[in-house]
Structure formats: structure tokens, C-alpha cells
Amino acid sequence: MAAMKNCHNDYKMKFSVDEEFPDLSKHNNHMAKILTKDIYNKLRGKSTPSGFTVDDVIQTGVDNPGHPFIMTVGCVAGDEESYEVFKELLDPVISDRHGGYKPTDKHKTDLNFENLKGGDDLDPNYVLSSRVRTGRSIKGFTLPPHNSRGERRAIEKLSIEALASLDGEFKGKYYPLNGMTDAEQEQLIADHFLFDKPVSPLLTCAGMARDWPDGRGIWHNDNKTFLVWVNEEDHLRVISMQKGGNMKEVFRRFCVGLQKIEEIFKKHNHGFMWNEHLGYILTCPSNLGTGLRGGVHVKLPKLSTHAKFEEILTRLRLQKRGTGGVDTASVGGVFDISNADRLGSSEVDQVQLVVDGVKLMVEMEKKLEKGESIDGMIPAQK
Amino acid sequence: MSGSFRRLISGRNTAVLLASLGAGTMATGAFLNENSSLAAETKRKLYPPSSDFPDLRKHNNCMAAALTPAVYAKLRDKLTPNNWTLDQCIQTGVDNPGHPFIKTVGCVAGDEESYEVFAELFDPVIKDRHNGYDPRTMTHPTDLDASKIKHGMFDENYVLSSRVRTGRSIRGLSLPPACSRAERREVERVVVTALAGLKGDLAGHYYSLGDMTDKEQQQLIDDHFLFDKPVSPLLTCAFMARDWPDARGIWHNNDKTFLIWINEEDHTRVISMEKGGNMKRVFERFCNGLKQVEHLIQERGWEFMWNERLGYILTCPSNLGTGLRAGVHVRLPKLSKDPRFSKILDNLRLQKRGTGGVDTAATGDTFDISNLDRLGKSEVELVQLVINGVNYLIECEKKLEKGQDITVPAPLVMFKK
């Protein structure tokens, strides 16, 4: 019995590959760099069991040519099988995005917070807040670019039941986007927890804003240190955060919370999507592996204007963002510093890089404050 | 490839599955092979239409008013011959709840057959939008004989410009929400080839959106001809901006009085326009141009989408029938301030817009005045209605200038319901 194909795709097969191949001449994203007519020809007749096709995978990259200086990914998965069915496109994209990661490489998962060394002593005069986030996809459902309303609601229902069973430091409440009171909404905004309908065409062109706000919501614990987004860009986004520099505690809560949630989903035969090659499966290829972004808001007014700042970050395998998150600028010398890698190293490895790297950069900042040189402190490439 | 995917097994009775789904999704886990997403066929069984029915409680559009759970259940799993679905037709209406005062349509066709396969939704939507027009029992008259127009020359002290627009779709190719890149390029090829055959005052030139020079672009902007990538979520949520600007372009004649948009919201939008008040000539050129283009595509074995129930088939149900909007930019400084202005327009079956087009406000005293209706009356009838109506508005303006009183005309009858 053949897998159920996407019928509209069959209709498109009447046209030749030359007639259907997208015009990528002005494009600068990973998909556009890699997609040739040959690859497109091999993949266009295929679809995943749930009916996702190569045109669905690439639509966001066709519609968003990108930027001369910023390299976006330009493709998304519609389900777990996308990464297998369209591997001829996605493997090279993954390799390009994740530092040469090969189709035969294995990804290590390590959510044992006790393996993290240090991280509880980042100077709070400099490190204002600490945060770790990741995403999780739930087996048996298609992903946000492709899922139906019925699936999205089933994901929400499952998530609510799982989260409602948490207790202790994880006891909390779910706020559906469609149905929260004005007071609740204002509080969530004030806490910087509320997510809104995506406006970025990178997401809307991938079909992720369909049926908004149906099936979307926010859960957080009473302590406001553990937060879960349901049905935004991924099935779940899980965030652990607190003021100050105790990254060790943030990571502990992250690992413990994630594992508690995973157990509950597994009990219902809907564990998380994961395999030993790609780690945790998420919608965007850039988030494969750990899907983890661990970072701090840190004051580095002097270091950030130092000629070697970018090089230091690169060697430490870190990236900077403004305090509004991705695509924002820094305000008042405060930067969001986080791990650059997602795939090919474990959660512990990546958070360790952040902890060690930020510690070093704070020491550099202090040196610069005293008017001393930091040349002797420039690290080797990690 | 297919060997590496496990089949979803459901050895149980489907009714049991559906019942358990109602009780909570936990039960479905027992029937899923944990290692794969749902194959489309099994998904249909595990997710009955009721689980997918959109939440339309905050919505105010024609689709939301017409779509009941029963209609949705009947239509959800149907496909047009081009394999377009109901969910795709209604996505724009689900994503755009609408406005308490403005009722949008909320659904689009992906192809000619959408109006047939999903008739149980589209028929009530059409009735709602087009004054009770019933596609099951009524026929739409098409009449492009411009010689029938009377009194088509306006007083140019008041009328600044005249314009008629419509759309045309090429039969056999999917519409903008559904078309693949190859289909869209085929539409461009068919139409541009035909337009290259126009001669005399209709001879012109095609400017592809992706390839035009900066100079050409600036000229088109100055002429107010250039259209841009849609930003309205009404259109983007209906998938009409995909692959922009691939196969999109603008053609116009050398005189700049006949203009065609290719692959924007419809396969083609056809516009005839001039400064001044000679609506008769604008309509003559409109009819003549349309007929010639139709002839040129027919020579190559193509035709426009049309049938006698719905007239010309276009993407949005609001443009069925004639797809025609005939209008003027007209100065009405006194009349526009009269409290009876809206009522007069209503009774004449006219609408006002700002001079930037739909969803813009009027600047100063100049208004865009055009016909409200599209379906159930012919092109000649609608243009005559606009001519009669605008002449009446100008008469009112002149009376008010002289300090005389005006009267609200009796409402025009559309058609017998």
C-alpha cells in the first residue's frame, strides 16, 4: 500500500521541472544555495505520509529572498518524516547551517544538569538575567506549517493535561490566547511572557500563523520561572529564566522540568520527536539537535566596543543579540549573549560554553574598566 | 522511500476511534504507531470534521455566516479536479475575522470548479453578497455592446476622470490562491502573447515585475499603474502572494488608456481609463479591447472562464458576474456635506471610496463613485446605471450651488428575488 500522497502535488507533476522550478536568482538563504533543478526534480514527486511536499518545504525561502548579510534557512519541516523524505535538500542545508554536520554524524543529548560545572557565580553586577530555552515536538502530530485545526487542538489539549499534572516548583496555570481576560493579558505582557501572532514573513509564508489564535496559549509556573508556549513556531517552546547570574539553577530547573513533562507525554504514547542523528526534531532546521539557546543579558559597554569583540565571540562559540531578542539592537551596552551551536554538541556542552564564555567576558570587562589590556586573555578557538 | 515508513494500523472499529477521540486525545495514542505522523487517509478518520471545524464565534464575514458544522462535514473531504480543498477556500476567512461594520467575503476559489464542488458554501455566500442572487435558479446576463450606452459624457467641471475595470480568468489553469509556479507562468505566457497581437490605439508593451528597469518602474509609479506585492492579510492569507514577483507584470497600451495587470489577485485585471468625463469612450475601448484579447487567446485554443449562472469566474466571489467596477473621480463639495448624500448613493446603487481606491478616505471634496453591484446585471446595464447616477449627483450639486433643494431618488430595483 503506497503512502497517501498530496493530490494537488500530483496535479503539479503535469508540468515539467523547468516550468515549476522557482526563480532563486536574487535569493540568499541556505535553501536557495543548495536547491538545484536536479535535486528539485528528484524530490518533487515525493510527499511525506501526511502529504507535505518539497514545494511546501521551500515556500518560505522562495517568498523571502533574504538579506545580503544575513543568511536565513529558507525551508521548514512539516512533520517528522520531512527530514527523511527530503534529505537530499535538508542534509546539505543542515550541514551548511550547523558547521559541516554530516548525514552520518550522531548527536549527543545530555540533560543531566549535574554535569554542568560552575555557573552559579556569574557576577550579578554585570549579568542581569539568565535564560535557557528549547523546543519540543510531539510525536504523532504534524508540525505548525502543516497541521490542521484538529491536530493543533489535540496538541493543546495534551499539553494542558500534561502541564496541569506538574506540582511543587512547577505548579502553574495555562492561559489560552483565545480566552484570557484583559487583566491576564496585561499581566502576561508586563511579565514579558505573552507571544503574539507572528508578523515575520519568514513564519507567515511557512503557514505557521493559520487559524490564529486557535489552539495557542501560554503556561507558566506560579513562580514565573518556567514558561511553556504552545503552538507558536513549534509545538512547545520551553523556557527557564530568572533575574541574576545563577545559570546553574536556571539549567537545573530547565532539565528537571523538561524531563517531568517528557515522562507525562510518553505515558500517553506521545513522546517527543527525537532521533540519534538529528536530536530533537523541530520545525526549523536551525533548531535541530538541542534546540537550545542558553543566554544571559550582560552589561559589556567597554568590551562590546573593543576591536576584537566579534572575534572573541566567535572563538567562544557565542553570538550576540539585542535585548529584544533576535533581530534587535543592544540598548545601553547590554547584550544578549548565547550559544551559537545547536546540533553536534549536547545541552550541557552548550550551556557550559555560555557559562565559561560569559565569565571570561565579564573579567575582560573589568580589566578594561581599569584601563588594562585584555590581549593576554583572548581565548583560543573552542 | 515508502518502505522506511510504518503504516498506521487501526485494527479497531473506526467508530470506536471516533468515540474515543471525543473523550480525549489520550486514547488515540493507543492506535498510533508512535514512530510516524498520520497518513492523510487515517488522519481523516481520526479527526472527524467536528474536530477541525473553525472557531468562528468572533467572525463577521460572509463565509462565517454561511459555514455550518453540517456544511463543513459534507465538504471537508471533497476535492476539486485540481485537488483544491474547502479548508484552503476558507483559510482567509478564518484568519481574518472581519470588522463589526465591514463584511468581507471570507472565502476564495482555487479554480473554476470550486464554485461547483463547494456550492453548498459558495451559493449562500453569493446570495448574501449579491442581493439574493441564486445561482441555482437565475442566469447572469453578459452584454459588452458599448453602442447601447446613452448620455455617456459627463460635465468635466465636476468629473475629473473615468474608469472601468474587470477581471478575466483563463480556463484550465488554477486561480491565484492555488496555482503552481508553472501555471502562473503559463497564464503570463498566454496573456502576454495575446496582448502582443493588439494593434492601433491598443498597441502596447509588457513590463514584467521582476525584470523591469528602475526607469520603467519609476514611470509606472508616476502613471499610477504599478501594483505591488499584496500586504492585505485578506490576500496573503489566501496564498495569493506566493513566489512574488514570479510571473507578475503590467501591460499597457502606448496611449496609457488600456492597462492589464497579470497575476495579481486574478489571472488578469483589465482597466480602461482616461482623464475627463467621456465614460462612453472609456467603455467602448474596454469592450473592444476585451473582445480582441478574447479573440486572440481563442486563436490559440484558450478561453475565459465563464458560465451562464455565474458570469465571469474570478477568485473572489464578490467579483463574479461582470467583475465590473465602473467609476469616476468627481468633485461634489456641497452634496458630500449634505446629510442625504449616503442615502442618495444607496438608492442609486452606488458606493463612494476615497481617491486612493478601496479602504481609502476621500481627500477634499473629490470622491471615487462607482457601482456597488457585480452580478445579476450586465456590463451595459451597470455602466448605464453609473452614468445615470453620476449625472444625477452632478444635477444635485448644481442645484445646491444655486441654493435649490434636492430630492432623494427612489431606490433602484436590482432584480426580482
From TrEMBL, chain A:
SUPFAM superfamilies: Glutamine synthetase/guanido kinase, Guanido kinase N-terminal domain. Residues 12-99 form the Phosphagen kinase N-terminal domain. It is an enzyme of class 2 (transferase). Residues 126-368 form the Phosphagen kinase C-terminal domain. Gene3D superfamilies: ATP:guanido phosphotransferase, N-terminal domain, Glutamine synthetase/guanido kinase, catalytic domain. One of its GO terms (biological process) is phosphocreatine biosynthetic process. ATP binds at residues 129-133, 192, 237, 293-297, 321-326. The gene is CKM. This is creatine kinase. Its EC number is 2.7.3.2. Belongs to the ATP:guanido phosphotransferase family. The keyword Cell division does not apply. Keywords: ATP-binding, Kinase, Nucleotide-binding, Transferase. PANTHER family: ARGININE OR CREATINE KINASE (PTHR11547), CREATINE KINASE (PTHR11547:SF60). GO terms for cellular component: extracellular space. PROSITE patterns: PHOSPHAGEN_KINASE, PHOSPHAGEN_KINASE_C, PHOSPHAGEN_KINASE_N. It comes from Cyprinodon variegatus. Pfam families: ATP-gua_Ptrans, ATP-gua_PtransN. One of its GO terms (molecular function) is ATP binding.
UniProtKB/TrEMBL annotation, chain B:
It is found in: Mitochondrion inner membrane. InterPro entries: ATP-guanido_PTrfase, ATP-guanido_PTrfase_AS, ATP-guanido_PTrfase_cat, ATP-guanido_PTrfase_N, ATP-guanido_PTrfase_N_sf, Gln_synth/guanido_kin_cat_dom. One of its GO terms (cellular component) is mitochondrial inner membrane. The keyword Transit peptide applies. Gene3D superfamilies: ATP:guanido phosphotransferase, N-terminal domain (1.10.135.10), Glutamine synthetase/guanido kinase, catalytic domain (3.30.590.10). It is a peripheral membrane protein. Belongs to the ATP:guanido phosphotransferase family. PANTHER family: ARGININE OR CREATINE KINASE (PTHR11547), CREATINE KINASE S-TYPE, MITOCHONDRIAL (PTHR11547:SF19). This is Creatine kinase S-type, mitochondrial. It comes from Cyprinodon variegatus (Sheepshead minnow).
